[in-house]
């Protein structure tokens, strides 16, 4: 379908309506198109002639750029919306030429609001033609992606921080002990990963590939010794330090003999709080600065 701008309407302040008419369309089709354009508040939709003069300005454009339709329709060009650097460098003109030549341009541009605030938008420019196929103008659709870029940058930063922070797997069903260790390790620059039993601990070890493991012995389901046996046979288990942090009452003589080779570093709970455990961990794995 081919559409052309035939009437701008009265652009009183706060009234951003405009009309597009289809050359061979019905009033219902016209009303449908107008309703779409007016309801598109998340997207700026702007129509211009080939010289770039703004002919139509929807509510989304007003919200994004800050100008009322009466301020720009028939009075301003697209240069008003470009970043000044893009105008001076000729990039804006190059994009316009490409739209005229190929019919479409799509990309990311810096834009400027009425209050001078700069932001980033995803922009699509499409060539409009009359019923005879002759170019008559350009339709510009923009979406503000500033928040999306901020979140992407934040996730990237967190990912870098995550990769630089040594993970310590804490396998202990005692929630009070978990919380105590988690708080202490976080403050010291480690990234604690807490699991309540041996089974979930093994899964976390595969996913997180921890720099060290803090292990209780008595837990429901798969206990600490069974976790240790299986962990030592994984690709990282052979070299990863394991610190057994448990109560003296949990250490049977046969357990001590099994631990002597697989995890000789044992710290008893209740003696000095969490400090002995932290010192043992720091001796094995330095925290992030």
UniProtKB/TrEMBL annotation:
Record GO biological process: phosphorelay signal transduction system; regulation of DNA-templated transcription
| UniProt cross-references to SUPFAM superfamilies, sorted A to Z | CheY-like, PYP-like sensor domain (PAS domain)
Specify the PAC domain's residue ranges.
105-157
Q: Which UniProt keywords are present, listed alphabetically?
A: Phosphoprotein
Chain positions with 4-aspartylphosphate modification: 216
PROSITE patterns to which the protein is assigned, alphabetical: PAC, PAS, RESPONSE_REGULATORY
Lineage, top-rank taxon, reads Bacteria
Please state every residue range assigned to the domain named PAS. Answer: 29-103
Gene3D superfamilies referenced in this protein's UniProt entry, alphabetically: 3.40.50.2300, PAS domain
Pfam families with a match to the protein in the record: PAS, Response_reg
* All copies of domain Response regulatory, residue ranges: 167-289
**What is the recorded name of this protein?**
PAS domain S-box protein
Biological source species: Candidatus Segetimicrobium genomatis
């Amino acid at each position: 379908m081919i559409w052309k701008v035939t009437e701008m309407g009265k652009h009183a302040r706060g009234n951003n309506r405009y009309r597009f008419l289809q050359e061979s369309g019905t009033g219902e089709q016209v009303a449908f198109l107008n309703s779409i354009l007016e309801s598109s508040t998340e997207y700026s939709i702007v129509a211009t002639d080939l010289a770039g003069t703004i002919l139509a300005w929807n509510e989304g454009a007003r919200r994004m750029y800050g100008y009322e339709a009466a301020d720009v329709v028939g009075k301003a060009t697209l240069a008003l919306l470009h970043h000044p650097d893009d105008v001076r460098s000729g990039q804006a003109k190059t994009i316009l030429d490409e739209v005229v030549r190929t019919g479409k341009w799509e990309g990311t541009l810096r834009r400027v609001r009425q209050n001078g605030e700069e932001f980033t938008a995803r922009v699509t420019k499409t060539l409009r033609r009359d019923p005879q196929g002759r170019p008559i103008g350009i339709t510009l659709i923009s979406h503000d992606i500033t928040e999306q870029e901020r979140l992407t940058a934040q996730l990237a930063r967190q990912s870098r921080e995550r990769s630089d922070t040594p993970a310590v797997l804490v396998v202990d069903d005692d929630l009070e002990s978990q919380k105590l260790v988690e708080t202490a390790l976080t403050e010291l620059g480690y990234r604690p990963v807490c699991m309540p039993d041996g089974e979930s601990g093994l899964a976390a070890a595969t996913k997180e590939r921890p720099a060290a493991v803090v292990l209780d012995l008595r837990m429901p389901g798969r206990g600490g010794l069974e976790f240790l046996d299986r962990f030592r046979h994984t690709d990282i288990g052979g070299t990863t330090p394991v610190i057994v942090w448990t109560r003296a009452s949990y250490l049977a003589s046969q357990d001590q003999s099994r631990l002597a080779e697989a995890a000789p570093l044992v710290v008893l709970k209740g003696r000095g709080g969490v400090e002995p455990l932290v010192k043992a961990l720091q001796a094995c794995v330095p925290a992030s600065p």
